[in-house]
Amino acid sequence: MSCGELLELLVYDLTMSTATISSIGDIVRTHGTGRPQHTCLIEGTRELSWAEMYENSQRVANGFAAAGVQAEDRVALLDMNGIPHFEICFGAALINAVSVDVNWRLAPPEVEYIVNNAEAKVLVVGAEFVSILDAIAPNLTHTKLILVVGGHGQYEDWNTWVARQSLGDPRVPSAPNDVAFQLYSSGTTGLPKGVMLSNANFLAIGPMIEEIWEITPDSMNLAAMPLFHIGGGGWAMAGMYQGCTTVIFRVLDPVALVNLIEERRITHAFLVPAVLAFMNMIPESATKDFSSLRVMAYGASPISEDVLTKSVALLKCKFWQAYGLTETTGAVINLPPEDHALDSPNKHRLRSCGVPGPGVEIRIHDNDNNRDCETGEVGEIWIRTGQNMLGYWKRPDETAKAIDADGWFKSGDAGYVDADGYVYIHDRVKDMIVSGGENVYPAEVENVLMSHPGIADVAVIGIPHEKWGETALAVVVKAAGVDVTEDEIIEFSRERLARFKCPTQVQWIDVLPRNPSGKVLKKDLREPYWAGRERRVN
Question: Which residues, in sequence order, are CB contacts of 285 under 8 Å at separation 6+?
């Protein structure tokens, strides 16, 4: 760090306070004026200062407004991790519009549904996804402006469009409960739901950013996970809240990741267990200098004790496990570094997801008897915090099912709390599968498979998978007189769904087990695959 940069940081620490930030737009306003020359973003060889990010955000905001985007309108992005994500996010925030990041792993029909459901006025698409754009563009119902990063014969290049927009912060007011982000989760009933996260939801994470993850204005924060996930975009925004530098990984490569930590002197990162496992397998990891790392947060799926102990020994920094959901704006329960110590007398706590974070209340609820569970008794994990979403976009019935009148969000995870206040995940109340950190709802997959003429009935369940934690298995009743193979069913699903949602195996059955009301007994189907395991999630 140069003397000038050190002086800027000292002055900044004395004069700037995150208390001045009351919305997502205020993040770029505060740091764009408070530390204009400090590096905001690094993507490959390209770097942007906070002043440049603020200027680009103003141009984007004014361009969106000229295209008819008004307060609380949605703007969508379909692209891998990159600088445009943040330009769109902050540009939208300056006019109090809402960012919608679309999972680029989705199939064209899924992308089309989300863009239309969000009623997105603008759609920005990365060059790699032009084929999806071409397939869905004629069917977009609300989109008035389409831009392509890198250009397209029919649509203007994103960077060219940004450069020709006018400067000046429009400063459209943004209230605490105005929606800032809309992230889509797979649907329990077959259709994705737009999770509405407000300015206040995100700012409620402030104490965790400072007290737990210890991110400071001089941190070098790694944004390696997909930004369309709360674990990717939320983690990146946590660093930006503090005004630090964010290093973007466009597409995660574990070998390149190992090198980047050393080269860029990364101080903070959030990774999923599968990535940590890959890092431990890379021979070069043993010779790399990871001394810059201060905090490694991980989550999105359970981690094995073997991978965890090897990662702690390799990286030699503070480890925090984070448990949360899109609906809770990310982490609400955290396992602290002292419980990761290899010689800890409380090694059993590695099986837990930790203790509630600042401002987070947890209760374990017995839904069958409408009562709170005793210590050690398994029930559904309910969460109350300022991080809880506003609700599901245009799904009031689903919102009412998820959040009760007193503000308790029903997680869908079954677990218990021990005498020391540590939360343990035991199973899922819902049928959700977590494969490689991605949520998969069987109902969505089943709805697609039932349209296959060779399938008379089907149930999708999660089974253990060594690499991805869990994977989807389709239990299929064949239609009479139709010959269908496992490969045909898997390929059929891949044409209509994101690959991570598709079954990797098919099991044939004569009739699905059902209870008297007709509900498939999925626990019976899952039992042979999970027998002998302490918990029924992987």
Answer: 258, 279, 314
307 vs 273: CA distance, rounded Å: 8
Q: Do residues 388 and 490 both lie within one domain?
A: no
- Residue 434 three-state SS: strand
Q: Is residue 204 part of a domain?
A: no
Cβ partners under 8 Å of residue 97, min gap 6: 64, 69, 70, 71, 72, 73, 74, 75
Amino acid at 501: K
Q: CA nearest 238: which of 266, 210, 198, 278?
A: 210
When pLDDT is cut at 50, 70 and 90, the band that residue 14 belongs to is very low
Cα–Cα distance, 88 to 94 (Å, whole number):
10
CB 380 within 8 A of CB 411: yes
DSSP state of 497: S
Q: Which of 91, 88, 142, 95 is nearest to 114 (CA)?
A: 142
Give the domain CATH number at 420.
Answer: 3.40.50.12780
DSSP state for residue 118 in the 8-state scheme: T
Which H helix or E strand runs over 115? helix 108-117
Do 448 and 404 fall into the same domain?
no
Of the candidates 128, 122, 56, 131, the one whose C-alpha atom is nearest the C-alpha of residue 86 is 56
Residue 135, phi then psi, degrees to nearest 5? -75, -30
* Per-residue model confidence as pLDDT tens digits over 89-143: 999 999 999 999 999 999 999 999 999 999 999 999 999 999 999 999 999 999 9
Token pair for 244: 């630090």
Closest CA to 170 of 49, 64, 302: 64
Number of domains making up the chain: 3
d(CA 154, CA 161): 14
Domain contains 385: yes
Domain range enclosing 31: 3-173
Residue 202 lies in a domain: no
Radius of gyration from C-alpha coordinates of the chain? 23
> Is there a single domain that holds both residue 372 and residue 471?
no
With respect to residue 417, please indicate whether it lies within any of the assigned structural domains: yes
**One-letter amino acid of 47:** E
Give the domain CATH number at 452: 3.30.300.30
Residue count of the chain? 538
Beta bridge partners of 354: 423
- Does residue 464 sit in the same domain as residue 367? no
Contacts (Cβ under 8 Å, ≥6 apart) of 168: 58, 62
Does residue 1 register a pLDDT over 60? no
Distance (Å, rounded) from C-alpha 333 to C-alpha 231? 14
The whole-model pTM stands at 0.83
Together in a domain, 417 and 464: no
pLDDT tens profile 364-373: 999 889 999 9
CA atoms within 13 A on the CB side of 45: 0
